[in-house]
# Entry
Amino acid sequence: MYSVETYNLTKIYSNGVKAVDKINLQINEGEIYGLLGPNGAGKTTTIKMLTTALKPTEGSAKVAGYDIVKESMKVRMNVGIVPQDLTADEDLTGMENLLMVSKFYNVPYGKAKENIDKLVKLVDLRDSINKLVGQYSGGMRRRLELIMGLVHNPRVLFLDEPTLGLDVQTRSLMWEYIRNIQQIENITIILTSHYLEEVDALSNRLSIINKGKIVVTGTPEELKKSIGGDIVVLTFKNGKEALQATDILKTYKASRITELSIKIKSSDFSKDSQTILGILKESNLEPLRIQVEKPSLDTVFLEYVGRSLPDEEGDSDSRKMMLMMRRLRK
Ligand SMILES: Nc1ncnc2c1ncn2[C@@H]1O[C@H](COP(=O)(O)OP(=O)(O)O)[C@@H](O)[C@H]1O
Ligand SMILES: [Mg+2]
# Structure
């Protein structure tokens, strides 16, 4: 049995935006599964449907064996969710937040306390668990949010952009905690991210998602292998030359990736390069720079999505909105 299985899962918002378009996922028990895609790809919408916060427009899905529409209560009791936007109350302590979530899930006090102590230890928050969350650093805050999703012992944990806004060092620390939790709790973890390194480092398997559709699925290694050979990036003086080169190198399936650069896939660039440069020279074109890239997850992304993943900081609008609401509440 799959931990998560979707069949043509689709969401069209009331304004007509098709955020998720016939997604089919099969996630095994105990996997860390990555959903990788740029902002607006439909990752959060997918997570919201799988955790029953949103109803699908079409298609269906089972999570922990239960139908997300017909058995939504059962799904809710069996999944943990760590949403993209932070949810802990800053005017309460970490402990108070954890107890509040436990109460929400009807976990008896004794059991909750026991579970919380274990989780707090797991993410090294013991020293600060009785401090106000408002005083936490970004990294501490994310660790608290992580275990808030675990107080009711879910079988499947959803992490929506778990390291958004953290610096690189704090981010890799967070990866360690996520790996430990998967092993110790023996649960399935589905994580979304627009950080390539994050999905590469954490997931056993992943799907790249773009414009609501899954473009490719596999292990990070499989995806890198599927590219085969080298990706060659040629950079020109100006856009006109890049455009001209794309046209001339049609037979090499050259395609433009930025204003000035084009990429060519080559199984053996050292062999092809002389020919390619020769062809360009006939049209008086000479690239400013030639770079050869070994396949990385970034190359995979480039290949399947057609552009690199920009390293942006996520939904800044919704974060701003959230901060504003917090201020209003005080
Ligand atoms: N409540 C909503 N109403 C209308 N459109 C939405 C809503 N939420 C998200 N969208 C749109 O759906 C698409 C997917 O968004 P989202 O699932 O948040 O993507 P991601 O999490 O990958 O950044 C985007 O085009 C976004 O603007
Ligand atoms: Mg999102």
About this structure: The two ends are 47 Å apart (CA to CA). The first strand starts at residue 4 and ends at 12. The chain is about 40% helix and 25% strand. The mean pLDDT is 90.
